[in-house]
Amino acid sequence: MAQLTSRERMLRTINRQVVDHYPCCFMSFTALREKLGDNLYELTKAELGMGLDTMLFIPTTPRALRREHPDLRGLPVHFDPQVKTTEWREEVSGDYPLLHKVYDTPAGRLTTSVRLTEDWRFGNRIPFVDDYQIPRALKPLITEPHELEALQFMLRPPTEADIAAYREEVHVARAFVESHGVLLAGGWGVGMDLANWLCGMEPLMFHMMDRPQFVDDLLEMIHVWNLQRMEVVLSAPPDIFIRRAWYEGCDFVTPGFYHKSILPRLKAEVDLAHQHGAKFGYICSSGLEPMLADHLAAGLDMLIGIDPVQGRRTNLTQIKETIGSTTCLWGGVSGAVTVERGTEEEVRTAVREAVQSLGPDGFILSPVDNLTIDAPQTWRNVDIFIDEWHRTWPSEPA
Amino acid sequence: MLRRIFDHILEGDAPAATECVQRALADGMDPATILNQAMIAAMDETGRRFEAGEIYVPEMLVAGRAMQSALGALKPFLVQADLEPLGKVVIGTVQGDLHDIGKNLVALMLQGAGFEVIDLGTDVAPARFVQAVREHEPMLVAMSALLTTTMTNMSTTVVALRAAGLRDRVHVMVGGAPVTRQYADQVGADMYEPDAASAARAARAAAKRRPSV
């Protein structure tokens, strides 16, 4: 078989067609992205230059410009114009200062408070949602069911300007991916991750057990918002649409709740992507096993983030056997433990084990879920990782 | 009544578990029997079911909450009866790390196993661990980290315990998503456990070979 472009290789792998060799596409590569000023076009070119498969993710808005939602890639998050926010800082004797934020909406007031730890990234400001604020939150934004009415004013559909800006970017992005032969990815969709940011992790688990209807109502609100955002992204469809779901494994959700409250909405989102001709990728890196049957039922095209070390209840062989014949499996090696901290032999062994268990068909190799540490050991191990990937290609191309 | 306390804790029904403990005490039941045969047994079963994949973190959290609530009702009677805990454990998430769910689960399971738990919270500096060991004389120090950038503070804490001449007096257990047994060996910990249930079981085993203070 002639050598494929990266895009062809990725799409054929996702579609379970014959490829020249199985792809290696890093699902996240923060250490490199930050070196390149958070420019996703440059990241894509740099990864191609390293011989990796890659994708261009749109919208490409850098993290620094996603002021209200740094950890939620995608279209801008807008509040209703009637929402007024107030923030202030409170000094606390002998402890970290506190930051408070109030959102006054026509349906009532929402409040949150966080500890301003030394490593707080956002100055004297609290973003609307972010991973970083969960462990620092003294009071999460949503604690009671009646607050959902006010929350509705924060989860508004994309504006006309957002839609126009997105379509303009798609035009540029398409020209780029076509000239470079890479995949175009869009997203992110979101479900329980947003619920965790709004409610806090432990409180959300208690709500799930004590007041499941409250969490179900919250998820419905997020789902409707998600669909509105998806419609825009899918109106000029990327090759794949990605939903982040780091908090949808069994470390955070019971399988029963997942089946009842997450699966039907996830399936609707997968169906919507398919109606627009896009494949659907789902990022979840831990607590996968009890949910696999539901992943299958949802019709996921890709399960992204399979981590044999940090992923709890993650048995590579079982995953391959259960969903590997229909769902493309993406990941296979721990980024933080093996690639960032491992020895050469550990990296090589991990790559071989990943392809033996998860591949070679319907498999995309990647460190999971990220490489963040810009250190000589990381870069040395990335080279070893890529070298071992080459060594595991078939000797005669298919 | 013991069966009902056991069941209510497993189901995570804190008010019902607490009410049953109060009724059992009012009926003159021995506090030690309530603790050992109902409450610790329920948390043992919670741990077993968790390890077997029959229940998950949210169910474990509510079981722990029910146990804590029931323990609140029982504690004055345990003190009155002069019942000693299995041992003391100082626990915390290491400096620079604010994540606490894993640490909280381990603390709950240790309490449920009969230990007195001194929870230092999150972002705990090595000096605070040292101070707590001096103050409480625990048999075990348990440290948690979620981040690869903060897990190095497990090593710093072990070094601080050694420098203070306390390392040989306590067992040291480490855990958290990026932590491995190999890493535990590297930092000089005695134990690595992958989850809260196994941590409680390992602590119990360690209590039997408690270092002399």
Description:
The complex is a heterodimer of chains A (398) and B (213). Chain A is of the alpha/beta class and 398 residues long. Chain A folds into two domains: 6-77 and 153-391, Alpha-Beta Barrel (TIM Barrel), CATH 3.20.20; 84-141, no CATH class. Chain A is built from 14 helices and eleven strands. A seven-stranded parallel sheet of chain A has the order 1-6-7-8-9-10-11. A four-stranded antiparallel sheet of chain A has the order 2-3-4-5. In chain A, a hairpin with a 7-residue loop joins strand 2 (84-90) and strand 3. Chain A is globular and about 65 Å long. With 213 residues, chain B is an alpha/beta fold. Helices cover 58% and strands 10% of the residues of chain B. Chain A binds chain B through residues 115, 117, 119, 135-136, 201-202, 205-206, 208-210, 250-255, 257, 286-287, 289-290, 309-310, 312-313, 336-337, 340-341, 373, and chain B through 12, 53, 55-59, 61-62, 65, 96, 98-101, 104, 122-123, 148-149, 177-178, 180, 194-195.
